[in-house]
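Researcher: Sequence of Enoyl-[acyl-carrier-protein] reductase [NADH] follows. Predict its structure.
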Amino acid sequence: MDKGLMAGKRGLVMGVANDHSIAWGVAKVLAEHGAELAFTYQGENFGKRVKPLADSLGVKHLMPADVQDEASLDAVRDELADAWGHVDFLIHAIAFSDKNELQGRFADTTRTNFLKSLDISCYSLVDMSRRMLPLMQGGGSIVTMSYLGAQRIMPNYNVMGVAKAALEASVRYLANDLGPEGIRVNALSPGPMRTLAGSAVGGARRVYKNVADNSPMRANATLDHIGGAAMYLCSDYGASTTGEVIFVDGGYHAIGMAQLENLAPVQS
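Model: Prediction complete. Tokens:
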């Protein structure tokens, strides 16, 4: 395997919470292939968890960031501009919804949680992409994280499905806006993952097992699989891929119903 595929490239990873995070899986693979990384974190508690992970990859820029605070995001951009001058990629793995509303009916979503979920889970991509644009002169790659619930009804995913649908639409519009600058914008859509965010969705364990039992690969994706897909999009091999939602879910998105061996027998 080419250990230098990302050599000489620098990028910002947003969304690492612990060593089970999708953002961590992506960061680890990128670093293993030579990328220099910067991390953000939200709040002191997450900062304490993320620092050992950042240190293990030689991350020199570990910055607080609240995507609902303009000054916070400006500070991230300014630090990278001063330290690096140029950014080759942005990994956006940020989402939020009140876990009490990730169960039951979507119809019961509150206005407050709807707006906050869309702001943090979707608008933050637009906001950070605009800030990274001056640092991506000559081209770059922006990768965000979606989920099948953006395109199909998933139990208890509720307002997050709407937020991810908006995120996927934003990917397409950003890809068109930033393409002339040589910047590609794509989303990865992993299957259900055993992450801090994934565990907030009601029935997460049953969903995880169902995908493993019924996907064509009969297995859920791993963090390394997602990291590898992200590396393709951030590397020069992904130079002509933009505006895409790439599934990393063992093929589950292509299945129309459960595998026959997992269907209840018909009673005659």
